[in-house]
Amino acid sequence: MAGLLVLLTILAPWGGAAWVMLARSDQLRQFAAVLSSVIAACAALLLLAFTLTTPSVEFALGGVFGTFTFVPDGLGAFLAAVATTIGCLTVIFSLDYMRGEHQLGRYYALVLLFIGAMCGLVLSGSLLLLFIFWEMTALCSYALISFHNDDPKAVAGGIKALVITQIGGVGLLVGILAAYAQLGTLDISVLIANAGSLPADALTITAFGFLIAAAAKSAQVPFHTWLPGAMEAPTPVSALIHAATMVNAGVYLLARFYPAFAAVPGWTTAVLIIGLLSALFGALMALSTHDLKRALAYSTISQLGFMVYAIGAGGIFASQFHLLNHAVFKALLFLGAGAVIHTMGTRDMRRMGGLSRAMPFVRNVFVIGGLALAGVPFFNGFWSKELILEAGLETAVWSFVIMLFTAGLTALYTLRMIWLVFFGEAHAAFPAHDAPNAMRIALGVLAAGVLGIWLLSGAFGHLLETTLPYHEGVLHVESTADMIFALITAPATWLTLAVIGLGFALWVLRARLTALTNALTPIMRAAAADFGFEWLNRRIVTTAQSAAVLLRRTQTGQLNWNVVGIVTGLVMVLVVLMVGR
Amino acid sequence: MTGTILVIGVLALIGVGLYGMMILHNVLKLVVALQILTKAAALALVAAGYMNGQLQLGQSLALTVIVADTMVAVVGLALAVQVRRHFGTLDTRALSTLKR
C-alpha cells in the first residue's frame, strides 16, 4: 500500500504534466492540472498513515548506481504532504491568477513537474536519486522564475537562481562522492548509521558539502541573493518556491542528516551561525524594502534562518514544526499578496494603502498570516517560534538574545507591511476588487490551517519519533497539551512576547521616535543594499566574464591549432602518468 | 618481437596522422590524415589482442572500428563537398567564420 502511494505521489503530478502538455484547450489543461495535483495531495496525506522505516519501492539497477529506493518515513512523508497540499492549493489559485495568460501548458506542466520532483527528493532513500531530484527542482525553479521569458529581469532572476543553487548542487555531489568512496553504497540509512565509523576528513567533507547545498537551496547567507531575484516569477510560483517545493529542501537535508553530522567538529556551530545571520539580515532587509513580494521573500530568508538555527541548536522537531507552520502561513501571505498585486497591477507598497475596505476577505486572511509570521500567540507561528527560541536558549544564550531581537524585528516589519498595504492613506486611483472564487478557496483553506494546524503538533512529533530510528534522543517531542503548558509557563515565552509587543509598538509610535529612526538610517541603507552581498555577486560575475574575454584568445578558429592543443594535452597526460608511476 | 613491431607501427601511424592533422589545410587531405589516425587505432586493437592472447577479440573490435571510421570518412567527404560549395575553397583557414 505504501509503495503504491509513494509512486502515486510522485507520478500523479508527472503524469498530469504530460497530460497538460498534450491537452488541446486551456480548460482541459486547467482540469488536468487540478485533478492530478489533488490526486497527489490525497496520496501524500494518506501516506502519512502508512509510514515505514524501510524502503517501500525498490529499483535494483546494479553497478555503481546501487538500488534506487523510496522510503516513506515520517520526515519524508510529512514534507511530501506539505509539498503536494500547498502545491495543489497554488494550482487552484492559479486558475484565477493566470487566467488569460499565454502558454498555460508550459506553466502548469512545470508546476506539476516541480511538485513531483520535490516529493521524489524527500522520499528518496538513495543519495544518487536524491541528487537527481535535487537538480530537477533547481531546473524547474529556473524555468518557472523565467516563465515570462520576454522580460529580461525574469530571465536574469532565473539564471541567478540556477547558478547559485548549482553551487549548492556541486557541494551536495562532492559530499555524496566523498561518502560513497568510503562506504561503497549510496544508501542514505547506511550513511547515517555508519557515519561514526567513517574517517574524520571524509565525514567533514560530506558534512560541509551538504551544508553548502542546504544553504544555497534554502537561501541562507551568503547564498540568499537568488531569492529576491526570484520574485519576478508569477506570484503562485513564488508561493510554491517559498512554501512547498524549493527552499524546504535545504532544511530537510540538514534535518535528515543531523544524526550523521552532529559529531563533526564545528558543524553544528556553523549551522547555528548561518541560521542566525540569515534570520537577522533577512529581517533587516524586509524592513528596508518597498516591494511587497521582496518583503515577503526577505521574511522567508529570515524564517528559514530560524529553522536552520534550530537545527544548529539541536531542535530538530522545532525546526520541522516551524517548517510546517511557515509553509502554511507563507503560502497564505504570498497568495494574499498575489490577490492584491493581481488587482493593483503594482508591487510597490508605497502605491498601495487603504485596500482594507475594497478587499475585506483578502485583508482578513492576510492579517491572520501576518500575525502568525510575527509570532503572536495562538496562531501557528507562535508555537514553533517559541520552541526554536527555547532550543536556542538551552544551547547558547548569546544567540538567543540575537534571535529575540530578530523576533522583535519580525513583528515590526510584518506590521509595517500590513499597514502600508491595507491601512493608511489610499494612494491608488483605480478600483480594487476582492478576490475571485478560486482564489478564495485556496486562501480560506490556508487561513484555516494557520488557525488550527498547530493542534497537530503532538501527532506530528509522534509520527517523526516512531519512524526515524537514527534521530532518537534529538527530537524532544511532547504531546500538544504538554507543549502548550510548557510554553505558557516558560519565562522565555513571556520575554519573547514582550519583545514582539515592543516591535509592534515601534511601528505605532514611529512618528514620535524620530531620533531612533534617524539612528537606524545607516543600517537601513546597508540593508537596502543587501549588506554588500549583491555587490559581491556582481564582482564574481564580472571577474568571470573578463576571464572569459582573456581566454577567448586561445580560440583561434584554426583547425590545425586546435589539433596542436589536443596533442599537447595528450602529451601532458602521458607525462603525468609516467611521472606518477 | 611481432608485438614490438606492431607497437612501433601503431606509434608511427599515430605520428603520421597527428602530424598531418597539424600541418594540412586542405579538407580532403585532413580526411586522409584522420583515416590514418583511425587505422592506428584499429592496428592498436589487433596488437593488444595479439599480446593478450585474445587475437579474435582484437580482430573483431578492429573490424568494428573500420566500419565506424568508414562512416566518419563518408560524413567528412560530404562535409568537404558542402565546404567547397559554400566557401568556394577547401582551405580550412577560410572556415573560421565563427571566430569573426
Describe the model.
The complex is a heterodimer of chains A (about 575) and B (about 100). Chain A folds into 2 domains: about 1-530, no CATH class; about 535-580, no CATH class. In chain A, about 75% of the residues lie in helices and about 0% in strands. Chain A contains 24 helices and 2 strands. Chain A has helices at about 1-20, 25-45, 75-95, 105-125, 125-145, 150-185, 190-195, 200-215, 225-230, 235-245, 250-260, 265-290, 290-310, 315-345, 360-375, 380-395, 395-420, 435-450, 455-465, 480-490, 490-510, 515-530, 535-550, 560-580, and strands spanning about 55-60, 65-70. Chain A has a two-stranded antiparallel sheet with strand order 1-2. The N and C termini of chain A lie far apart (about 55 Å). The N and C termini of chain B lie far apart (about 50 Å). Chain B has a single domain (about 1-95), classed as Helix Hairpins, CATH 1.10.287.3510. Chain B is mainly α and about 100 residues long. The interface of A and B includes residues 556, 557, 558, 559 and 567 of A.
Fold topology:
The complex is a heterodimer of chains A (581) and B (100).
Chain A: H1 2-22, H2 26-47, E1 57-60, E2 67-70, H3 74-97, H4 104-123, H5 127-145, H6 152-183, H7 188-194, H8 200-217, H9 226-229, H10 235-245, H11 248-261, H12 267-288, H13 292-312, H14 316-344, H15 360-374, H16 380-395, H17 397-422, H18 437-452, H19 457-467, H20 480-489, H21 491-508, H22 514-528, H23 533-551, H24 559-580
Antiparallel strand pairs in A: 1-2
Helix pairs in contact in A: 1-2, 1-4, 2-3, 2-4, 3-4, 3-10, 3-14, 3-18, 4-5, 4-10, 5-6, 5-10, 6-8, 7-11, 8-11, 10-14, 11-13, 11-14, 12-13, 12-17, 12-22, 13-14, 13-16, 13-17, 14-15, 14-16, 14-18, 15-17, 15-18, 16-17, 17-21
Chain B: H1 2-23, H2 27-52, H3 55-87
Helix pairs in contact in B: 1-2, 2-3
